[in-house]
Amino acid sequence: MPASFRAQSVGARSLGARGVAVAAALVAALTLLPLLVVVPDALSADPGEAASYLLRPRVGELLTNTGMLFVVTVPATVVVGVAAAWLVERTALPGAGVWRTLLLAPLAVPSFVSAYAWVTVAPWLDGFGGAALVTTLAYFPFVFLPVAALLRTLDPGDEEAARSLGLSPAAAVVRTVLPRLRPALSGGALLVALHLLAEYGVLEMMRFQTFTTAIMQQYAVGFSDTSSSLLASVLLTLCLVALVLDLLARGRHRVARVGSGVQRRAVPAVLGGWTTPALVFLAAVVALSVAVPVATVVRWLLHGIAEGDPLGADLLQVTLSTLGLAVLGALAAVVAALPGAWLLNRHRSGLTLLLERTTFIASALPGVVVGLAMVTLAVRWARPVYQTVGLIVLAYAILFLPRAMVSLRAGLAAARPELSEAARSLGLSGLAAFVRVVLPLVAPSVLTALVLVALAVNTELTATLLLAPTGTDTLALAFWREASELDYAAAAPFAAVMITMSVPLTMLLRRQILEER
Amino acid sequence: MSELKILGVSAGYGRETVLEDVDLTVAEGTTTAVLGGSGSGKTTLLRAVAGFLRPGSGTITVGGRTVAGPGTWVPPERRGVGYVRQDGALFPHLSVAGNIAFGLPWPRRRHHDRVLELLDLVGLPAAIAERHPAQLSGGQQQRVALARALAPRPGLILLDEPFSSLDTALRTATREATAQALRAAGATTILVTHDQGEALSFADEVAILQAGRFRQVDSPRTVYREPVDAEVAEFLGDALLIAGSAADGSVTCRLGTLPAHGYPAGDVDVMIRPEQLTLTRPGAGGLDAVVRDIAYFGHDAVVELDPAGDESRDPLRSRVLGVDAPALGELVGVSVVGRVRTYPRVLD
Questions:
Q1: Confidence check: pLDDT of A303 > 50
Q2: CA A148/CA A163 separation, integer angstroms
Q3: Quick check: keyword Cell inner membrane in the entry (chain A) (predicted)?
Q4: Is the pTM of this model over 0.90?
Q5: Of A219, A291, A408, B148, whose CB is crowded by the most CB atoms within 10 A?
Q6: What is the ipTM of this complex?
Q7: Chain A closest CA to B151's CA: distance in Å?
Q8: Which homologous superfamily does the CATH classification assign to the domain defined by A17-256+274-514?
Q9: Best residue in B45, B52, B59, B99 to probe A by mutation, most A CBs within 10 Å?
């Protein structure tokens, strides 16, 4: 009997599970759609023409510019982010809670609003210097957030063990803390890099050319998909290089805490005479990254009101249409992310690994590439959907699906399969167990995912510029239009609404540090 | 409460067979401990009974009702089988009261009396009812998990290593509270464990599971004193195995001629538990020995003995009460208490 018999695990082979897998595979294919449109399009160009196009000095200049920005901004965000995280989480600095919030606040200010503020405050600051300054100030929280979350939970036991093995305090940090920070640091730096590659607003405002700005300009001059696709392919290649560098930098070893027992909090380091310089440093970071843009927006807002600029109706309408797109985009991204998130939590297989990789690659797609791909797709094969709400919502779903995935997976991890089993053995049907156990545990993370995506849509500029449906205005578009015409007072109200609506984002992210594992 | 009958059950995952043709009967209101090492198939057995794993063949009946068999499959929620896992698996979004009342029908979930009754049954204070699982100690979580499983009055309770994640002191207390609650509820119970002491002290019957088959199912005394073979004997506790020659209900070996049962005649292996070796004055026992080493535990002590005048022979090991522990290097007599167990000779 034993040879011929096969037993099955209940539920694993159900029709439902297969349906979820198919849905997840479809979504994965959808997220890679931009790649599937842009790359073959670039390859279809005549090789000689493509080569002569790509080998122009202009492309070299774009590469140099991108490289220069990388070399300055990535290390600068790492230094500022790590220093701030260490000061807030591991020292006895006064007001750590307040600083934690303030250091995340730059995420509530869209980077192009920050650039607008700096342009009006310091008009002499443009080109490379302005670009590097504004991107550093806007992006350092990408490093601060994961590093602070990790430092907060890092058990001091490792450091103590290192000290008792004869290492100096500094050597103990270098040899025990730094290796464990590696994934957080590398992940943060990757986010900075990808944002740099995708950035349009800041660089355009600072008149600093990179691939993204070049593609946008080319599009404005006249839609020629092949040359745009060529530039976009170079941009995509750079994004994938950043992904690979991150994978290499993360290392393969397990850095999570091993062993059991109660985890302890580290004793905060006493700064003594360094307290004042530390406070000055944090205050300067917050002043430059938050206070300057917010104060500028408020100043122009008051200026506009004093001049008697009308805002009311128009502002309200733009806000409502932005919210509408944000809600649709959030729903689309979260619904699309659900099957994959479920599959990644419940079934480990070759397929799910592929799915994970796909999401990872999708997270590197810049808005300009997604936008361009959607335009190409619509113009070539589906003219009627060009400049429709459906197309832009699809673009948002592709663009922000990885974000939704992250928080959905965290929520699904809380709804462990054992809990459903416990409910079943207490007499609940599969559906009842889902309603009474899985849903309550997952609901908060679904909500978080919806809010995160909606806020991202709220301030999305690049893809929106390419895909905005005719007659639809968004806060980012309206702001951009006014700011481009140097009507800073008219732009201010839109910026003010965007910043105000992004405040919940800061709160959500703050909770993420405090509740980290 | 119901009787559990497992007949010819084979089960596994994918193409891998974990349980092979297993039979087990747990009488109504009794507790059977399934004792096995990791990978022996204990959890697979529980999952098949609970309804989370469909056996490839065989029949499982609970209280006379077939829940799994050829052409029959009752889903877990309609089996009336409670399942307590190693980690408790409490619902993190519900209070203790919410957890305990979870499996009750809707109108009764509102009433607190059943919750309080169950908290009392598992020995927890009523004040704990509004707390959340994260605010409980490991032992409290296990007791709440047990109360939750008992609440719908299941015919059968399955305990999957419920004490193994607790530290020693907590484990004993939780085990006692659990045994008491199960007795009071009159529950038919299967306890799965890898801890010999736990299995022997907790259960009415102990089933030894190795490599997906039951090697022996008997009362705790029988499996310990009369294990079916040397391997089971060593699995259940310290065992001394020496060569001997059996005839007429006794066996002759280097410790003298001893009353024996098991394999009746000829060359045999003799299994003696260390606590069967008692220390006497030199010359008064079956042989004399020198105390080579002592591991003193307080309540008892394990004494390593070198048989006197015979360096080549393997040392003997005796477990004595702490108050009777000899001194290192002392010459003592060694005699054997009670019957010893014999097996067909496999020793060289």
A1: yes
A2: 23
A3: yes
A4: no
A5: B148
A6: 0.77
A7: 9
A8: MetI-like (1.10.3720.10)
A9: B52
